[in-house]
Structure formats: C-alpha cells, structure tokens
C-alpha cells in the first residue's frame, strides 16, 4: 500500500513538472558537476592543510550542504523518471549511500545529534572530530565518484584513441598524486618537499616502481603514506580500472559493442560476452589476495619488530600487502626490509614473495588457475589442461626464479661484502635459501630487499639487470618486457637454428604478428634503457657505470631496486628516471600507438629485397 501511494504521488508530481523536465535536468547536471568539484576541492583542502576551528566549521558546512544537494538531486531525478524500478536499479549504490546519510542525520530527532557522532562521543571524545569528519568525507567522496563516473559517458563521444586515454590516465594520476604529496599535511612538520621530488615519488608509486628520493618512512606523515598506498593501488590496477570504466559504459543503452571491443583488446579476453564478468572476477581476486596477504603478514612479523599499537601493526601489514601484490616495492621502513628485525622475519619474506608472484603472474593466469569456471571445467573434463599462455607463464616464471636464486646464492656466498652486519654470511642454510628465492622473485619487478643491495657483487647486479628487464607477465601489476615476450623470442631463435619455418609452443603455432610485436617491445625498451644510461652517465660521471645501468633498468622496468644512488641524483637525472618509469609502465607499444600516425592502407606489397644480415 505505501508503495502505491508513493507511486501515485511521484506520477502526479511528474505530470505537473513534465514541461520543465529538460531544462531542470540540464541545470541539475551542471549543478551536480559544480558541487562535485567543490566537494573534491573542499575534501583536499581539509585533508592536506592544517585546520582552525573556523576553517573546520566552513568545511563541515560545505560538506553538509553538498550532501543535502545530492539528496535533493536524487529525489528530483527519481520524480522525473518514468521507470522507477529501473532508476533504483541503475542508481542503487548512490541510493544506499544517501539512505545511510539520512538515517544517520535522523539521530538529531532521537538523541539530539547524528547517530555516528553520538556513538563516537560515547566511545572516545578525543577522536570525535577527526574520525567523524573522515567518515563523512568518505561518504561524500563515494557519492561524488559515482556521479563523475556516470558523467564519463560523454567521454565516449570524443574521438580519442583508447591508447591515448590509457596514457592520459597515468599522466593525470601522477600529476594528481604529486599535487597531493606537496600539501603540508602529507609530510612531517619541519620538512619541505621539492616539486621534482613530489613528482618522482608520485610517479614511482603510480608506476609501481618503488624508487625513492626521500626516506618514505620518516619524511611522509600517515596521510602521505595513505596517498602513496592509493597511488600504488590505482597504478597497479589502472589497466583494470580503465577497462572496467568502459565495461560500465557498455552496460548502458546509449553505448554498444565498441567499448566492449576495447576492453577485450586491452585485457586479451577471448570474447565479448564474458568481458564484464571477467573484470569483476579480477577485482574480486585482487581484494581477496590483498586482504589475505594483510592477515598473513599481520601474523608474520618477528617479535623484534616494534609496533606502537594493534592498529599500527594492522596498517603496516595492509601497506606491505598492497605494495607486494602490486609489485610496487614501497616499504614503511627506511631500509626497506633490510631494517633491523624485519630482515630476520623470514616468514614475512615468504608471504611477500608469494604476493609478488601472484601479482606478477597476470590476471589471465590467475583466472585460468583459480577461477571457479576453469576449475569446474577441468574437473568435468580431466583431459583439459590450462591455456598455452598460462603454461608458458608458469614455466618461464619458475625457470627465472630458479636461475636467479642459483646465481644469487653462488656469487653472494663468496662475496666479502656480505660479512658486514646483517649480511648473507650470517644466515643459516634455510635462511640463505629463502633469501636467494626472495631476491630472485623481487628482482622481477617488486623491488623489495632484505639485504643491502649496495654490497651485492657485480655478477649478481648484472644478472639481476636481465631479470629486471624480463620482468613479470602480461596483464599483471608488474613491469618489464614480460616473460612471454622473452619466451617467444627464445622459441623464435630455436626455430631459426633448427631451420624451421613455424614457431611452435606446446604443439601450438605462434603467429608472425606476435613475433614482430615481441621484437618491437624488446628493441624499443632496449633503446630507452641505452638512452637513459647514456644520459645519466653524462650527468653523473662520479657514479660507477654499473650502478647507473642497474638504476635505469630498475626504473624503466618498474622494479625499484637500487644501489642507493637515487637520492643523490641531480634534478635532470631524476626527470630522466621519471620518464623511464612512465614509459615502462604504460608500455612502449601503447605509447608508440598514441604518438604515431596509423598507415592509410596496407593493401600493397613491394618486391622482396635480398639483404645480408649475418
């Protein structure tokens, strides 16, 4: 009965104001965008700058006004819509958030203040203001984000190449991160961050690299660490977010199969029909891995690692879990995992290494191995094996981990530099084995280190340059030229030696297009590394060439391992590394597609030339 009454009231109001519907909705869109931008600016101001009682009052006033506006806007759009069920279905999340706000505010009628504020006051008055404001801002930010994502449908009307939009998303992410890290509240009192260092830190986090020019642990405040964590998460999954954005648009009636085709191209899905489901599976698996990693890390810390409280331990666990799964390599310790006590937490090293491997395998591999659909299908059809891509990634990853661990153990066991405090020589047999495996895995784009990298021997540094260059696997959180790229080149070389026309992998044939793409990726990445190394050698003649080479490869392949030279680099050298990190993260072919003019036609051939190459 109440539903019928509401429907009749809505219908009468709709008929009464129908003539002004177009004008009102147009004005409402402009106002929603304006309030969204004002709300974001207000939240950033409150979050990034010291507050007085007066400024806090006005911030809260603007936030409350914005929430009231969004509630009224929601009701107006509901009354103007002829299909209320469809409206509730398409705006379910926004409606739930606004309903929660209304229920909280209704506490004024019951207890004289919003329920949340009343509850916090009962628990602990000291945390009332900050925590209450934080929760209210999160609610508002979610509402604003939903509104902006819906407004994103207009982006599809712009004739911009998908690759250009992908590259632009990283530019905006780095710029936004640098702006936020430059705010006074992001750094500890008494410190100042330069523009270059802010951009470098933002680029390193957004590109999930892990190179640092300042002491992340002691230079940034908790708010700064939170921004770095968000940059790592958004940067590590930016391709997923980008694809999800178009998947969201493809669900709307005004946009068809074009956006799904873009998603399929970026994510290498097999068909259009399962695109949205696969994307949600990926996001769900990311959440599961990071939460499970947080729980395991929480119980893996050595008893020698000090924590100020239970929440402090939980925060450190969450930060390192996100950093590990996204292959970022950032740590809340000045010496990374070489910190006293942390370097002896070998169970912690195992958990972080497992998260790094999971994030570096790539989401298609994780889905193929652990997805409910593939598992169910293999149980019903025991003869069915994982996809060729999955088997190739697993085999290459195992081979690189074993070779890297062997090289690390063989050369570092003889390295005099490892007799210093916390060195490799002071570990027992099992600890040496764990450290060798850990650093072999970390060198493939994670960047964590539990030993002093500056003391590593030259053969280890050089071999780890190769591991860093290969990197992780496609459609993953890691960088490098990718394991499958090197595998295709390896099989191509073997086919050439054996004088075979076709390149075969697990009884399947590899197309010539993939071979050309692999050669292009390795060639252009090599050019970037060579150019970066040449420029840094010219700008930093006092630094050993091997250390510079190691640093450039670490930056371009988004690894984050360093021999300790990063903070001492000149401004020009830092910008070279920023460019290397950016090009390494977005992908050299993606960047090339963005900048290059497409060929007008390929419907012609020239006579073959006989060129001597060897």
Task: Tell me about this structure.
The protein is mostly helical and 614 residues long. It is built from 27 helices and 2 strands. It has a two-stranded antiparallel ribbon with strand order 1-2. Strand 1 (503-505) and strand 2 (508-510) form a beta hairpin. Helix 13 packs antiparallel against helix 15 and helix 20 runs antiparallel to helix 22 (458-470).
- Residue stretches low in confidence (pLDDT < 50, at least 5 long) are 124-128, 249-258
Query: Roughly what is the average pLDDT, rounded to an integer?
Result: 81
Following the backbone from N to C, one meets helices and strands in this order, namely HHHHHHHHHHHHHHHHHHHHHHHEEHHHH
Helical proportion, percent range:
55-70%
Biggest β-sheet: strands ordered side by side in the sheet: 1-2
User: What percentage of amino acids are in beta strands?
Assistant: under 5%
Classification by helices and strands: mainly alpha
Give the C-alpha Rg: 27 Å
Please give the alpha-carbon distance between the first and last residues: 86 Å
The major pleated sheet works out as: 2 strands, antiparallel
Supply the number of helical segments. Answer: 27
Oligomerization state: single chain
- The shape is globular
According to DSSP, the number of beta strands is: 2
